[in-house]
Amino acid sequence: MDQGVLEALKRRFRKLLLRCVLEEDGDLQQFYKKWSIKDAILSSADSWDDIPAQTIQRSWNKLYPVDVEVIVKETDGSASQESSTLLNIIQDFDAFQTVDKENIEEWLSSDKHQPGYEIKDDTIAYEALESDQLSDNTDVSDKEEPLEKVSPDEALKSADCLLKFLEQEHDSS
Q1: Residues 8, 82: contact at Cβ < 8 Å?
Q2: Which one of 5, 102, 112, 142 has the fewest beta carbons within 10 angstroms of its own beta carbon?
Q3: H or E stretch including 57?
Q4: What ranges do the domains of the chain cover?
Q5: How is residue 68 annotated by DSSP?
Q6: pLDDT band with cut points at 50, 70 and 90 for residue 31
């Protein structure tokens, strides 16, 4: 999948996170004490839901073009529009009057230079091929037992159990 989809997801998540921080009456430390994994998961889901279907479709067209059509990369116009929207939200608060669009764009793209962001499809394919070749050369006795398959119902029950546990931990602290 294209890095543009991941970047769009991160931008929307940061926007939701900032909105939650600004809506909080207490200070930043109080907010992060209240912020739970469940909140992060729900915010991630909301961010994913906000990504236009066309963005996701275009990212897959780059990997597996179905029709012969010109693949148009998502322009910076949508990123610029997000920055403008976020700037309008932020500047409603007195503490953020000095923030400008450049600061917001810098914050939204702060992880572009982190390792892993620019991993290309060719690199992933090469590493997978190399891994397959290494596994072909290993002895049969070195192979691990196949993992037990988990049904969707079991996975859902486990996720519910994890959320209950995390809520209990959050309430007790």
Answers
A1: no
A2: 142
A3: helix 53-63
A4: 3-122
A5: -
A6: confident
